[in-house]
């Protein structure tokens, strides 16, 4: 019986002894197989963080509704990381080159926004801004790779927005496979250079209890990403909630405040509920005045908060005499009785 052909780079493990079978001489491909004992005896470096606790090496997908402030958030982070100092005015970050592909912006708009954020400070030399780039299959992957080769100490690449650079899908691929393949090109760049790559994306119009389900497109996008972040902000409010989960990041929610005069997002202390409750009550009140006898799910979808948050808020407001609930759990303003 002939021995089946195996790729030369595959390093086999003997099934009985557990001893590793050496790779063929001359193979330059990376090792991809280990015995369990070998793996447990190895020491790996900690992940490199662009923004500790939020953005680690690998691919992070940042999603949010249009005009919620994603670009302001990432431009501020890019400036902070390129210069070193404080990200979101609270998180210590190490300095290093940053590439920001601002593919929906103009030089004039970028200058205007940076002038507001910097407030008279000098712009960091380590931040490179680009307003046009080929799609990934048509040379974009190579172009970003060259920049990374020329900046070996780079800490972050931002692509705003991913749709501008992902390119067309290969014929015959399902939507899921097309999304996963597009993410795979970015993942190659991130993994081969050990760098954080942030992709800006949009969310679905319909809300969801699970913030991961709000990411537009198929599950292939969030599934291929190392981390997913969703930024939410109720219309007319300055505060936002950043939902975060990932392979190297604990699932969490962070309360943020946006200073529109300075163009700066600030990370607030404590859980989001400590900062959004009063504004949530105001948003709920406005909605039920216009739409009496509404259930929490409908209210949540309309004002851009989670159903659980709205449900608890409505219960507290009913206990405080601000709302009245009927037997089916629908709410109306007490003054509408």
Automatic annotation (TrEMBL):
Pfam family of the protein (one): AAA_25
Database matches in SUPFAM superfamilies: P-loop containing nucleoside triphosphate hydrolases
InterPro entries membership: P-loop_NTPase, WH-like_DNA-bd_sf
Highest taxon of the lineage: Bacteria
UniProt protein name: DNA repair protein RadA
Organism of this sequence: Acrocarpospora corrugata
């Amino acid at each position: 019986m002939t021995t089946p052909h195996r790729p030369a780079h595959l390093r086999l493990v003997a099934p009985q002894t557990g001893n590793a079978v050496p790779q063929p001489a001359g193979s330059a491909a990376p090792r991809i197989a280990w015995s369990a004992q070998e793996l447990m005896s190895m020491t790996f470096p900690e992940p490199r963080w662009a923004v500790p606790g939020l953005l680690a090496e690998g691919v992070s997908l940042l999603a949010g509704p249009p005009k919620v402030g994603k670009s302001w958030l990432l431009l501020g982070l890019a400036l902070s990381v390129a210069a070193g100092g404080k990200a979101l005015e609270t998180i210590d970050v190490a300095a290093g080159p940053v590439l920001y592909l601002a593919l929906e912006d103009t030089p004039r708009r970028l200058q205007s926004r940076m002038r507001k954020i910097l407030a008279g400070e000098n712009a960091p030399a380590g931040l490179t801004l680009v307003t046009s780039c080929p799609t990934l299959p048509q040379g974009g992957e190579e172009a970003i790779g060259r920049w990374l080769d020329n900046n070996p100490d780079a800490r972050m690449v931002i692509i705003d927005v991913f749709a501008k650079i992902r390119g067309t899908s290969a014929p015959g691929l399902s939507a899921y496979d097309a999304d996963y393949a597009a993410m795979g090109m970015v993942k190659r760049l991130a993994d081969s250079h050990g760098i954080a790559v942030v992709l800006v994306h949009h969310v679905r119009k319909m809300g969801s209890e699970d913030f991961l389900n709000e990411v537009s497109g198929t599950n292939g996008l969030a599934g291929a990403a190392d981390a997913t972040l969703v930024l939410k902000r109720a219309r007319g409010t300055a505060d936002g909630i950043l939902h975060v989960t990932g392979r190297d990041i604990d699932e969490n929610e962070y309360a943020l405040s946006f200073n529109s005069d300075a163009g700066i997002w600030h990370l607030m202390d404590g859980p989001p509920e400590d900062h959004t409750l009063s504004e949530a009550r105001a948003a709920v009140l406005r909605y039920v005045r216009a739409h009496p006898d509404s259930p929490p799910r409908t209210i949540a979808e309309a004002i851009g908060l989670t159903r659980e948050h709205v449900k608890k808020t409505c219960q507290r407001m009913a206990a405080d005499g601000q709302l009245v609930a009927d037997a089916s759990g629908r709410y109306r303003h007490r003054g509408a009785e």
